[in-house]
Design brief:
mainly alpha, Four Helix Bundle (Hemerythrin (Met), subunit A)
Length: 178
């Protein structure tokens, strides 16, 4: 992360954070079978989200590399096609963090379920997972907003990201209130 390289960057960190949060949820759920009848299902869903988030870290790096490559092309007129390539690359670089935010929101909801009904000794782990998921969603949503503005992309993308953040925050509020 600290190397003087453009990737992995913020999107990868958001994705890995969501994966870590999902891992905590899965662990807490596995220790909650006695208290929570759906514990095995919650653990399986957390595992699926963990795998998806981890894959998104790689996809985000590839998407950002494509943006950099598009910007290195000759200016329109000399080589042609630069602007459309930049816009297409920015679209992918926006779609990926949007998906990260949505995955993180689902992780936060699972964390809230485990915190509410799971093993009380693992409530802290589920709570940390929920907070990590919110941070992941917020960071990813910020990238969606930046890339949308830079690429002149549809305004629905940041709106979807904001909904994911709100979902994650609401789930975390349930954890904190309980």
């Amino acid at each position: 992360m600290a190397a003087r390289e453009p990737t992995p960057g913020g999107g990868g960190v958001a994705a890995v954070t969501a994966a870590l949060a999902a891992g905590l949820v899965g662990m807490a759920a596995r220790f909650s079978a006695a208290q929570l009848p759906a514990a095995a299902d919650l653990a399986d869903r957390a595992d699926q989200l963990r795998g998806r988030a981890a894959a998104l870290a790689d996809r985000d790096a590839a998407a950002y590399q494509a943006v950099l490559a598009a910007y290195r092309r000759p200016k329109d007129g000399a080589g042609g096609g630069r602007r459309p390539r930049i816009k297409a690359a920015l679209h992918e670089a926006t779609a990926t963090p949007l998906e990260i935010a949505e995955v993180a929101a689902r992780v936060a909801e699972l964390a809230a379920d485990v915190a509410a009904g799971g093993n009380p000794n693992l409530r802290g782990d589920a709570t940390v997972a929920a907070h990590l998921a919110v941070a992941s969603a917020q960071g990813a949503a910020a990238l969606v907003g930046i890339n949308t503005a830079q690429g002149g992309l549809p305004g629905e993308l940041p709106e979807r990201a904001a909904r994911a953040v709100a979902t994650a925050q609401a789930a975390t509020a349930r954890v904190s209130a309980g």
